[in-house]
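Reply to dn_fold:

You asked what the input looked like. This is it:
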Amino acid sequence: MEMILIGFMASGKTTISQLLGQKLALPVHDLDDEIEARSKLRIPQIFRQYGETYFRDLEADTLVATIHRPGILATGGGTLLRVRNRQMLRASGAKIILLQAAADKIYQRLQKRSNRPLATGLSVQAVADLQANRSAAYEGCADITINTGELTVQQTVERIITELGNLCQG
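and this is what came back:
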């Protein structure tokens, strides 16, 4: 089975994909890791040296190279900003799982990380506004939506497995 995890930054895509991959014995591909490997730069460096447009171009090229790999793909929070990326995701045939959390929860998670160039200095309201701007793109692609805000990582993985089962039966 192929799955793609989408959602806002710090919604849990990387962490959830790792445990889900272990649980289902599937390989996991993280788009941000793939970008860093291809560019030989960390994402904050790419943003600093080349800017967001360059990063989004690199992200789209990397998506093309990874989208049909078997297993689980964890996308970046902004991957769905481009229409072409959304079209590729939908056309892939993979089950697309949207991970969501409330703005205050995302804000708390972002405070623990320094590798999010677009999150530096964001307030809770700015997170909420950015989430609102991206919600239609996320929701328009999702086969399954899971709120990770009040679930543990293990509970989220179990919920995904249950929802995938329901989706396959329905």
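The chain has a mean pLDDT of 92.
Hope that clears it up.
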